[in-house]
Write a structure and sequence with these properties.
The chain is mainly alpha-helical and 85 residues long. It has 3 helices and 2 strands, in the order H-H-E-E-H.
Length: 85
């Protein structure tokens, strides 16, 4: 088993995204529906990130992780694109 601390999980990205918004819509949804919607938003946002220093497109969809550890700056950029989605 690989060391998951070297990867950023989708859940970490979802938590980071939700901490930056005030939309109560997510509070009214089930956990499963929320995660499905957040994954859809995340997948739509990633291609907008131009010229990332790391390969953001190499995802492990089975374990729901990026195959890299995202920096705070990279997470902020992705969050902005998630908000615009």
């Amino acid at each position: 088993m690989s060391d998951t601390s070297s990867f950023t999980s989708f859940e970490e990205m979802y938590d980071f995204f939700l901490a930056g918004i005030t939309d109560d819509m997510f509070m009214e949804m089930t956990k499963e529906d929320t995660e499905a919607l957040l994954e859809e938003i995340l997948m739509a946002a990633i291609p907008h990130f131009e010229f990332p220093r790391k390969s953001l497109f190499d995802l492990d969809l089975e374990s729901k992780t990026f195959t890299v550890k995202l920096t705070q700056e990279e997470m902020m950029i992705i969050r902005q694109y998630m908000i615009s989605e």
